[in-house]
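Per reviewer request, we include the raw input and output of the structure prediction for the construct analysed in the revised manuscript.
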Amino acid sequence: MKRFLLASVATIALVGTASAADIYRKAPPPAPPPAPPPAFSWTGCFVGAHVGWGWGKKDDDEIFTVDETRLTNPPTTRSFTVQASNSFDTSGAIFGGQIGCDYQFGFGKGAGGFGGGAWVIGIQGDIAGADINGFSTDPLVTNFVPFLSPFGRIAVKEDALASVTARLGYAVWPQALLYVRGGAAWTHDRWDLHGTFFGLLGNHEVDNTRSGWTVGVGAEWAFAPNWSAFVEWDHYDFGHHDLITDSISFTIPGNPPRRFDVTDTFNEKQRVETFKIGVNYRFNLLGFGKGKAPVVARY
């Protein structure tokens, strides 16, 4: 009987000790809160497409020079020059694509969010087909023999625009960017010079590639994780350029004979304004882009 009582007491003591240990055991730590969604960043590269409309202005200068040489001994020469100018407008659609990369950075704790903003720098290349065209009359014909204007036609079609630009933007909202851009530009024109003083050597069709500069402003909105849309205005300036120089020489018999050297030079200045709308697909490249918060300088 004593042994039974001792065994019972020992069992109760062991159970009590185990229960006490359970009471003082630490509870498991709470589960960590879910991670916040990654901060949006403009850092990364993109490729996209655009459509729009272009308006151009052509300023034409034409210089017509005649050198008359009397074939005496010694020969004597006299010259006269006639110059005239006019302007005409061009317009038409544009359609093309762009590719580039951006890098976002900021200053202060608020950079990259509402009220703090963030700066974005980048580089971009654009190329577009165009149908920007217009026509005018030969400046000399218009100014000196206007009744022949219907027969002195100058037509031009601008069929390509391209540029490589740097851009600087400011994120007024994490997904909304305002920016300016500027850099080098190129264009390709097709000229039809028909029935003008260039007819001295026949009519001319001239392909002309020009280089110049461009500046523009725009706004871009990231409407999905990898997609953004933009609107943009750009000014292109291609300066002055000698488009073509035509010349012919002939001799009129007489006493003395006279030789005539005739030169016609056509110079034009070209500017274009464009308005574009487009979309970009933005992707993560070399660790940039999606999921990366902007670099912030803290002071």
